Amino acid sequence: MAERQVRSAVGQLILRQVGKGSVAEYERQKGLAGGTLAYYLRPTSQNRSRRAGVPKIKQLAEALGSSIEEVSEAFAVDSGLCALTEESLTAAEKNMIADFRRLSPTSQAAWAAAVAAFAEAEQGTR
């Protein structure tokens, strides 16, 4: 089976929980209606944001074994909102931000381009 790739934060959260197993089987095991999670993995669904109210976020959090905050953050990121807080950053991420802020604007632009190139190359190897 080819490895599934998703761009959306919600889709990535789902795949982390489901792993390499069948999404449909995971939905059945969790008592979800068919397609509840699969919707967020469709390429067409990843190109648009879908509103999710509190009941849907709670349902997904419970099914994925995630916190409401984590699921809410994924929806916020997919909607173009910055939901990151200092508490949500790892130590490595905090260090990278601190290092970035010490750079000149020219060096910041070079750093951002290098990181983007590494991320793009890594996506190509998955």
SSE order and pairing:
Elements: H1 9-18, H2 23-29, H3 43-46, H4 54-64, H5 68-78, H6 91-101, H7 105-125
Give a brief description.
By secondary structure, this protein is mainly α.
List keywords for this structure.
single chain; 126 residues; elongated; mainly alpha
Q: Would you mind describing this structure in some detail?
A:
- The protein has 126 residues and is an all-alpha fold.
- 60% of the residues lie in helices and 0% in strands.
- Helix 4 packs across helix 5.
What does the overall shape look like?
elongated
Classification by helices and strands: mainly alpha
Nearest-angstrom radius of gyration? 17 Å
Q: Helical residue percent?
A: 55-70%
Tell me about the largest β-sheet.
none
Sketch the topology as an H/E string, one letter per element: HHHHHHH
Strand content: under 5%
Tell me the number of strands: 0
- Please report the number of helical segments: 7
Poorly predicted runs are: none
Please state the average pLDDT score.
84
| Terminal-residue CA separation | 13 Å
